[in-house]
Amino acid sequence: MKKDSKEAIMQAAILLFNSKGYSGTSIRDIANAAKVNTASIAYYFENKAGLLEYCFTYFFEQYVRIIEDAYSSIDKGATVCLKRIAADLLHFQCKNNQLATFVYREMSMDSQISREIMSTYSIKEKYYLQQIFERGFEWKEFRPHSIPYLIVQIKGLLMMPFMNTNYMREVLYVFPSERFFEQKYLKDILLWIDSVLCMPIEIKKEAISK
Fold it and tell me: CB of 98 within 8 A of CB of 175?
């Protein structure tokens, strides 16, 4: 069995799930696209449901690890920490744009696997983001605001390009897989953090001096 068969199967599955949908994709379709036999899929993933679960786990294990790694820099400031999370998550999603697109689309549906993801990985994500925002308020870095709404805004900025890929390509002519997009869009996200979330310098100095 080829050493890279597992990766080839996952990549083929992601492409097919995006183009034909999960229900419209068969194990044989995946095997043909990955140039392996169906027994290889059974060996690595047991069945199509197991392959679907692996795609979710593969994505969110890395997603949460990125947040955890960035959170280790919280002592440098909440702003620095949040900007690192934004940059690292955007890079990860651009690098894995097909997987991100598929996962986010599936997460929008009420299913067993999406509920499991929300009860584990999403709760961890919320915890770290909440900690960052609370520190930002405490340290007078961020304007006072509702934390749930801030989470909605930062997640909306990071997820939208991968939830609406057809709109991005066909209407806006913007391609998240391109390096130019990542560089340009990251600047816009960082601008949102600086101009909307962060306290103006003069107000921050005044608040600290009190």
Answer: no
Tell me the three-class secondary structure of 20-86, residue by residue.
HCCCCCCHHHHHHHHCCCHHHHHHHHCCHHHHHHHHHHHHHHHHHHHHHHHHCCHHHCHHHHHHHHH
pTM value is 0.89
Residue 142 backbone dihedrals phi, psi, to 5 degrees: -110, 150
* All residues at 6 or more sequence positions from 36 whose CB lies less than 8 Å from its CB, including other chains: 2, 5, 8, 9
In sequence order, the β-bridge partners of residue 142 are 198
CB 97 within 8 A of CB 165: yes
168-201 pLDDT per residue, tens: 999 999 999 899 999 999 999 999 999 999 988 5
d(CA 124, CA 54) in angstroms, rounded, equals: 19
Extract the tokens encoding 121: 């990985």
- Residue ranges and CATH numbers for the domains of the chain are 1-46 (1.10.10.60), 52-209 (1.10.357.10)
How many residues in total does the chain contain? 210
Tell me which residue has tokens 């400031």: 77
Residue type at position 100: A
Q: What are 38's two structure tokens? A: 């169906």
Residue with tokens 């280790």: 72
- List, in order, residues 6 or more apart from 126 with CB less than 8 Å away: 151
| Chain segment 131-146, per-residue pLDDT in tens | 999 999 999 999 999 9
Residue of 176, 94, 163, 89 whose CA lies nearest to 132: 89
